[in-house]
Amino acid sequence: MRPLPLPFPDETESPLVTELRFATSGVTVRGVFELNEFAVLTPDNLEFLRLYIRVRGNLKEVERVLGVSYPTVRARFDTLLRAIGYEPELADPHAEVLSSLERGEITPEEAARKLRR
User: Are residues 103 and 95 in contact, defined by beta-carbon separation less than 8 angstroms?
Assistant: First the structure.
């Protein structure tokens, strides 16, 4: 079996399914059915979602597994949220400063200066 050929070139609307076939029982159901938001994810978003679930929603672990920066992971997560119909929350600027401090990217003095702004 092959995955759905999505996204489909030059199409912006979600596809409709018109037939379901259950191979073992031989049952076929015809009609017009909508695919849910997860069924139409791009392969990249689906791969990211699977990893996110596998690490139980821990973005720091996603960062470690992918070997990319936390802001990159966060951007991919926001892209996934938009793809399933949610608008990502605005990032707390203090959280990023504290994450940078935790990763050793900035000194405590730099963190304190940034947090005072």
Answer: no
Residue linked to tokens 């596809």: 15
Q: Which two tokens stand for residue 77?
A: 């997560």
Longest dimension (CA), the chain: 68
Q: Residue 95 — φ and ψ, nearest 5°?
A: -65, -40
Residue with tokens 């690490």: 55
Q: What SS3 state is found at 20?
A: strand
Q: What share of the chain is helix, strand, coil (3-state, %, to 5)?
A: 45, 15, 40
List pLDDT tens digits, range 60-97: 999 999 999 988 999 999 999 999 999 877 667 787 88
Q: Count CB atoms within 10 A of the CB of residue 45.
A: 19
